[in-house]
Protein 1
Amino acid sequence: MAIPSRPLPSGDELPMVGLGTGGLGTEAVRTALDIGYTRLDTAEAYGNETEIGEAIADEDRDDLFLTSKVRPANLHYESVIEACEDSLDRLGTEYLDLYLIHWPNPAISLRETLDAMATLHNEGKVRNVGVSNFSAYQLSNANHVTDVPIALNQIEFHPWFQRPELVEYCEEVDVVVEASAPLARTEVFDEEVVGELAETYDRTPAQVVLRWAFERGVATIPGSGSAEHLEANLAVFDWELEEADHRRLTDLDRDQAVYEPNAPDWMGGIFDIPH
């Protein structure tokens, strides 16, 4: 199955649909690989890099696109280097196709973090550098303090939360937008429009929403441990929404997030910023 892709600054191609692995283990990832997924998105904060490493151990590394993320507590120079090397060890690979700053940390210099990213890039341990949960202002700062191109900004994006100004800025500076919650954690399935279009096109609600994102040029990483859902989430490239139907989904924008405005628990949890 050929998955459309977007070019990145390194010349690599980013598959437009991948697997968000948060909460998933080895068997779910193996199932996804068997179905045809090649793009796997993880993070040190997910705590499952070892399991993903087990799932991909027998795969041809050249056929995979692996992303991981460094947690906000580890954004000092030496901490970034160490965190990346630990992720590589857990994943059992010599390089990451894409390495992201999971969340910006206002307590640590962005220049320092990106200097470390540049070192990893120059050493061949990271092929592309990106960010996650960055505003347009933060992304602009990142672009001004590093010579390594910012390849991608992974943000919350779905019909309820479309962030047109941020998406437009990313497009202007040639940064791929990737939706970390493309289905609004399934909450958007309750929308009448989504249900109507699913029936009209004989597709699942998830397929309708993912197709809409693809038509917007936004990459997606829906997560699922169900083989049925995994297969369905890839089946969004051989059909299209009518222009009026696409617009009906776009008109659902209400600036309503399911996670992004809720500031991380900087003092604990997966972010673990020390007092």
Protein 2
Amino acid sequence: MEASLTVSDLGEIQLLKKIFIPDVSSNTKEINDDCAHFQANGNMLWSIDPCPTPMANWFNKATPEVWGCYTAIINLSDIAASGGTPIGMLVSLEIPDNTPVEFLKRYQSGLMAALQKADAKLLGGNVKSTAKFGATGTIIGAASEQKVTRHIKQKNCTFYLVGQSGRFWSSVIGNHYGWDNLPTTIQNELNEALCFPVPQTKAGQMIGSLNFEVACMDCSDGAANALFQLAHLNDLDITVYDDIKWDLDPNTTEFVLNKNINLENIFYSFGDWQLACLVPNEYIEIFESKLNNFTLTKLGYTQSGIGQVKTENNRILNKNSLNQNFSGGYNSINSIEDMISKFMDIPIFIDESMINQ
């Protein structure tokens, strides 16, 4: 009987009492106010993001836990990119009346699992009856002593990605086109990256603890987007290495190539939630030493310029490949075929002669 309960069977008061409030943390004993109570010392970080529809939804893998995880990570990643320490989230849920109670229990489980891995709390939130399910989180964090933004004064820097690369889109390709003979263990690892990506919160805190300036942003829109934005924001030209030591295992690399997918597309497109960092060249040894417990990929180097991104063999970053809202990006695409066409078929870098064609 309980398995068939919907939120309309419980009502708002019992829904809050049975599912959400038990997970709420506060600095006061009262946890049923309309505002969260907490004490703050020093500079704070504050961000807000709605939960995107997980790509796993196209493959019937977007469990309630996946939705909960994505609600957390899209906000946790913003704190990481600012070098901060996450404190807690408020989550506003829009819930159809016929939503199974079991869905919300599992959603809450996924949300809390992601927050707890980041040592963050659920401070409270809101529930509202609507026609379509949706979740928006706002997150609060403690800023680091060394302010971390997307800006940097130094012109001669090295560009790093922090976090694993290529796994998200390898999973999309496998789920859409078939896994061939790729070992089940690798399939499971790739599906974990698709369904439960990891925000780089610990790496962000380490970056915030450094005593030198680092520019940082998260790759929620992809590494290519981060290259473009960091170049333009800092008046830099970025040269991307031709031979990059990506961390993807050989079996997966061969699998992707056998599907006639350009490896650059799986590495530079969104989904893996890395941090992109510009590190002054005089500090790269310290940076690599301090972050030696994290996956680091060295992409290229910078010099003073006009915001141009090109490879060592003079291919230019293709702006048409970038994931941007309102410009045919992820949130505007309505089929998995169009999604793959947009992000796997359009080249990341193109010959300069093709720019105006």
Protein 3
Amino acid sequence: MAAEYTPFGLAPATRAGAVRADGDVQVHRDFVDFVVDGRPLLFRLSDLDAVSPLASDVPPAIFAAQVRGLLLETEAPLPGGRYVIYGCPECEDLGCGAVTAVILRDGDDFVWRDFAWQTGDHADLERNSYRGIGPYRFAGAEYRAALAALLDGPARSRRRVLLIDARTALLARPAAALRAVGIGADITQDAAAVPADELRTYGAVAFGRAVTEEARDAVRRAFADAGADVAEVAGLAPIVPLLVAQVEHALDRGPAERRRLTRLTATRTAADVEVTSACRVRLTAYRLDRLHRTHVHEVFDGVLEPGGHRLALDAKAVKGEAFVVARASGNVLVTAVAHPEPG
């Protein structure tokens, strides 16, 4: 067991949703992550797409049961005193694999140890243990206070976006795609008739390309008058998977230290990406040709170490109006490809 105390905390986290090029949907999940020694514990698992059991979209009774389990007020759900720390974000089935750990009480302290990847009732520590993670000893008072605060109700993020365009029919498909990944999406031509209480439920507002600057200013005033601080997406790209990524990017209001991806820029020759911890990063380029046909190119898929990285881009993949999307487990960044001025 660890002889020294490790600071324990909790922080809001996100598993960003997506609509993939083949039409498959990746569901958006908001959850509470464990902050161990000042860093999200999930960041120590570089290639894991998972959420904690403390997800904001589970029924309140189940959420409370998960909290009480971590407080050792109920029996461990798995043999050997093991608890699920991170599970599948799509179905939460143990068969898909989960990170588990033994949680026990030592005096007034709580100890997490023997972390392992588990796909059945029993963990094989010889083959599937996480040898670089734990054990952690948490001071009882700090641990209990952090978890007990959740019993008042999990934090609910404003996971809704208001889509605005003069031709609202064009927004039907994007709105359906956003709802499919778990983001609430409403459509209107302007915000004048939307009650202030409802405006405050949105985390972002997205403008279609036909919305004039005057109309945008009117929408901004409506949100300001309602006391709503919302992120803005200007000039929605007419590519559904890209639009979903733009909205996910806008809805992510968390601090930089809670993100794996912190910077993305792109030119016709390279994309510059910065990550805060070792993680799998996927880069996808989207472009529209002169006939407004969509072209999708998978640019990069691999694990990057902390720091800045320059990744080469094929000029044909980002010709004309183009965007690059960077994804890691937890967040997504979108940038328009910068083209040099003529001459």
